[in-house]
Design brief:
α3 runs antiparallel to α4. This protein has a domain of 63 residues. It is 61% helix and 9% strand. The strands form 2 sheets. It has a 3-stranded antiparallel beta sheet, covered by helices on one side. A two-stranded parallel ribbon has the order 1-2. A hairpin with an 8-residue loop joins β3 and β4.
Length: 211
Amino acid sequence: MRITNVNTLSSLLDRLVTENIKLFFFKKSGDEAKISHQNIVILHILHDLDLLFEEANMDGYSYLGENRTFTETFSKEIGELIMNDIRIGEADRARLEEVTKDDTDFYRLAFNEIRLRISNEGRAKNKNNIDEVFKKMTDNTIDLKQVFKKMTDNTINLKQVETPKHAGAYQITGKGSEANSMRFNFVKKPNLVNRFFCRILLGWVWIDESK
């Protein structure tokens, strides 16, 4: 069993986003030693993600999460997690910059402290929801009693049963081999901002259904 904030899917995705944000700033400053270190860290995280997906394919996904509510979709939670990680980095740097000034603006300091707290709370919610959505995606159990009850109650209308039409998918593993690839299919195509950050910070490639 995996544990939230240690080795769950959401924890690894959160770490992957954070380390890629660090890599961006190290490249900006031209610090080759730290760039090299970040690349190694990111490769290890990607390796851990591959192991997690293999484990989920074979044995399902079991995790010990926090007591929070389940909301919205996987795509939305990923997008919000990325934005919360970016806001946390911005608020943390602004706070550090303020405390090192000779004329510290305490109102600005308090603002960034609140911003940091709100973003951390949002990130915790996103991570918990990501793990719950992924568990539902890998959980293939069916409550047969409920199925038979609906059949005997004549509540199933076969005309209303339609196969979902996917707009496309994020390919997240096995980019070198279609046989070993794993994809998250979506009925609605994520917006441009979501696709951009998923590609830059997670390495996920969006593929339209028609391609």
